[in-house]
Amino acid sequence: FNEGSTNIVSLVGPETRFVNASGDLNLKGGEFTVTMPETYTSLTNARVFKSDKEIKIKGGHYDVNVPGPGSEIFSVSKNKDLDDSIITITDGTFELVSDDDCFNADHHITVNDGLFYAVSSNNDVFDSNGDMLVSGGTIMAYATAAGHEAFDVEPMVQGTEVSSFLPHQLTISG
Predict the structure, then answer these.
(1) Torsion of CA 140, 109, 22, 63, to 10 degrees
(2) Around 9, how many Cα atoms within 13 Å sit in the side-chain half-sphere?
(3) Is the peptide bond prior to 37 cis by the omega test (within 30 degrees of 0)?
(4) The pTM is what?
(5) Dihedral class, residue 135 (left if φ above 0, else alpha if ψ from -120 to 50, else beta)
(6) Measured over all CA atoms, what is the biggest interatomic distance in the chain, rounded to whole angstroms?
(7) Cβ atoms of 80 and 104 closer than 8 Å
(8) Which residues contact 156 (CB under 8 A, 6 or more apart)?
(9) Is the pLDDT of residue 173 over 60?
């Protein structure tokens, strides 16, 4: 998917993957609008952008709403080589609503720049079983369910100053 392309997608039917890569997934711009119609909100565990290794995002506009149970937006699946299970975001605009994690990586998440407005209704917004580095951008992340967090990473977010914090909400400007 390259700069200048427009991709409007409606997730329908039994398919639970929009873009599924067995290797690296490279998103180099473009516009993505992905919605799950009301009639399919019972579709469970949908993955909009899924990779078995690494997701690299270098710009673009992502307007995604997937409220189905367990639905994630950017997901790097468990992999024997955890060093490959990462998400790297160089830039982009993200308007995301999911039931589960908006960003899920087994090893590492890096945010270099971008504008993020992301909401998870039943889990964490950014979930990394490793660390997370934020060196720029503006992130507004909301985890609305009790017991969940905007950032579920170990160790906690590194690299920037937290500009505001409320329960289940974290805003970072780098």
Answers:
(1) 10
(2) 21
(3) no
(4) 0.82
(5) alpha
(6) 43
(7) no
(8) 132
(9) no
For 9-19, the pLDDT digits (tens) are 554 445 566 77
Query: Three-state SS string across the chain, please?
Result: CECCCEEEEECCCCCCEEEEECCCEEEECCEEEEECCHHHCCCCCCEEEEECCEEEEEEEEEEEEECCCCCEEEEECCCCCHHHCEEEEEEEEEEEEECCCCEEECCEEEECCCEEEEEECCCCCEEECCEEEECCCEEEEEECCCCCCCEEECCCCECCCEEEEECCEEEEEC
Q: How many residues are listed for the chain in this entry?
A: 174
Q: Which residues of 95-133 are buried (b: 16+ CB within 10 A; e: fewer)?
A: ebbbbbbbbbbbbbbbbbebebbbbbbbbbbbbbebbbb
Structure tokens at 41: 């909100």
Per the prediction, the chain carries an average pLDDT of 77
Residues 60, 82: Cα–Cα separation, whole Å: 27
Structure tokens at 37: 């119609």
Report the C-alpha gap between 67 and 40 in whole angstroms: 9
